[in-house]
Amino acid sequence: MGENPEIISKGYLSLSFAYIRSEKDILKLVNTIIVNTKGDG
Questions:
Q1: 29, burial (CB in 10 Å: exposed 0-12, middle 13-18, buried 19+)
Q2: Is 20 within 8 Å of 29 (Cβ atoms)?
Q3: Rounded mean pLDDT, 30-41
């Protein structure tokens, strides 16, 4: 509705950091970010 996607994304990203407990968690987070930000081409 009038939300700014950039602000929402930053909120989700910072919330995600609260769940990092190990190197495995970091790899999952990075992989999720890569998969969800792939551009066309």
A1: middle
A2: yes
A3: 80
Residue 35, phi then psi, degrees to nearest 5: -60, -40
Domain ranges of the chain: 5-38
Query: Could you tell me the two tokens for 4?
Result: 């700014």
25 with 19: CB under 8 angstroms? yes
Q: What is the DSSP letter of 22?
A: S
Q: Assess whether pLDDT exceeds 60 at residue 28.
A: yes
Q: 9-25, pLDDT tens digit by residue?
A: 666 666 667 778 899 98
Residue pointed to by tokens 């950039």: 6
